[in-house]
Amino acid sequence: MWTQPYRKNDLEAGARPLYPLMQESPELRWAFIRKVYSILTFQLLATIAVGAVVVFVHPIAHFFVSTGAGLALYILLILTPFLGKVILESVILTTVVVMSLTLYTFWAARRGHDFNFLGPFLFGAVLVLMVFAMIQIFFPLDRISVTIYGCLASLIFCGYIIYDTDNLIKRFSYDEYIWAAICLYLDIINLFLAILTIFRATE
Fold it and tell me: Residue 18 domain-assigned?
């Protein structure tokens, strides 16, 4: 008796393993992935809402500045210099890149690719970026150097999106959905800021 091949909707149903040699239940892993992306969506929408309110509602912006609220002030300082089409361009490009890398990682995982080896390299690259950013405080860079810095930062956080998405598919435990969402959130925000830096430097 012949066995029926996988149908197209088996991926959404979770009946087909996400990667070769998968030992856990695909249904449970898909439920975990949906939970993480739901939290991530809420985080990003909340960030956009808070940023928009702080930037465009001046009494609220003044309130945050006068009370020294760290997060709101951070958002204000980041977004204020980039008002206009630069933000929209950065959001569009970030969205396209994140969706493309996410789909690619799921596709690659299905075919047996593993991106766990990226971890040490990405960690070292972030350390270099942090030191480089501190050096800029004392020795400001010109536009070309800032553009190069933004491009390198964008590549690094693109790597982190692939790395953390791969961990989401294979390694995060079901109790680590908050940590998984935070990791992806930080990757996306840092990618957005890096792209924003590039557009700002090339204006």
Answer: no
Secondary structure (3-state) at 4: coil
Residue 116's pLDDT is what? 93
Q: In total, how many domains does the chain have?
A: 1
In contact, 161 and 187? CB cutoff 8 Å = yes
User: What's the 3-state SS for 152-197?
Assistant: HHHHHHHHHHHHHHHHHHHCCCHHHHHHHHHHHHHHHHHHHHHHHH
Element (H, E) at 149: helix 143-170
CA torsion angle for 90, 91, 96, 98 (degrees, to 10)?
100
Whether 179 contacts 120, CB under 8 Å:
no
Which residues form the domain of 181?
24-201
108: its two tokens: 């690659």
pLDDT recorded at residue 1: 33
Confidence (pLDDT) at 65: 52
Q: Is the pTM of this model over 0.85?
A: no
